[in-house]
Design brief:
Helix content is 42%, strand content 16%. It is of the alpha/beta class.
Length: 308
């Protein structure tokens, strides 16, 4: 039996679909079981409070930890703290419950780390802290690190598309020159699905990425080209992350509490350390253009894009 946490979220929902197509025995965990969009056993659980974790993990050999706290602090006993503090509490609760249940392997999807010696954004620092907590508790666990996931429901991708759609003049702060290797959603889900089945990956953190090295400015220009719209870039000399975050939040229609930590992570290169994941999992990742075209087609099946 495999457990998928965060089953009502973007990645968790897609992973559930992938595992069920393969016929693997799966259980989902969610704070609101009625919101799980799959024909699967569902257990009510909350990683921050610890409620329901023992029942959810009972009898599982592996568990996917796909929970992040990017929203604004909520009122009540589990609110009032930063997303980093909530992530830390949640990871510790889950790690302890997994140890009690004898779970052999926890699979975690976190963020790609910058080069050693680079200042970490709060967002990335939290992701790496969760990774350490889970790997320390279950030595055969696997942490997969990704930068931007390209998919119709990926918040990072949707924010970029909304900017292209709604702004004719695109202001590019200084972080436009920093580089990363975005990954197609389908490849990210495939890495997750294969993770418990690859013995050589046990106990490791592995970077997963697409084949294209792109600056953030290039990424936005390519999205505009693939959407078939002309956009004029305006290069700025400073990063101006606080002000830029407020503008992006307003234009894209996403909460500032989500946008600001994501944009802080753009202030450095985020590149994979090596190709070990691709070699171990035998995955040939799709190109950036293929990923964007597929994501835009899926997006438009659900809602129109005004710029297209």
């Amino acid at each position: 039996m495999e457990l998928v946490t965060g089953a009502t979220g973007y990645v968790g929902g897609r992973l559930l679909e992938r595992l069920l197509r393969e016929g693997r025995p799966v259980r989902a965990m969610a704070r609101d079981p009625a919101a799980v969009q799959a024909d699967v056993e569902v257990v009510r659980g909350d990683v921050v409070s610890g409620e329901g974790l023992d029942a959810a993990l009972d009898g599982t050999a592996s568990a996917y930890y796909l929970v992040h706290s990017m929203e604004a602090p909520a009122a009540g006993p589990n609110g009032g703290a930063s997303f980093g503090a909530r992530d830390r509490r949640a990871a510790r609760n889950f790690a302890a419950a997994a140890s009690r249940a004898g779970v052999e392997r926890v699979v975690y999807l976190g963020g790609m780390a910058p080069a050693p010696g680079t200042t970490l954004s709060p967002h990335l620092r939290s992701r790496l802290e969760v990774e350490r907590i889970l790997l320390d508790a279950s030595p055969k666990s696997i942490a997969l690190r990704a930068s931007i996931v390209i998919g119709a429901r990926s918040d990072s991708f949707r924010i970029l598309v909304r900017l292209v759609e709604r702004l004719r003049l695109l202001p590019f702060p200084a972080w436009r020159r920093h580089r990363t290797q975005p990954i197609d959603e389908r490849d990210a889900i495939e890495y997750l699905a294969r993770a418990p089945l690859v013995p050589e990956a046990a106990g490791r953190s592995l970077d997963i990425a697409g084949p294209d090295v792109l600056s953030y400015g290039d990424m936005i220009r390519r999205i505009a080209d693939l959407m078939g719209v002309g956009r004029a870039p305006l290069g700025l000399r400073l990063s101006q992350t606080p002000a830029a975050s407020a503008v992006v939040s307003a234009v894209a229609g996403y909460p500032l509490e989500l946008v600001r930590p994501l944009m802080q992570s753009l202030e450095t290169d985020l590149l994979p350390r090596d190709d070990d994941a691709k070699r171990l999992f035998r995955i040939r990742p799709r190109s950036f253009d293929r990923a964007v075209e597929w994501a835009l087609r899926e997006w438009e099946r659900a809602e129109p894009l005004a710029a297209r």
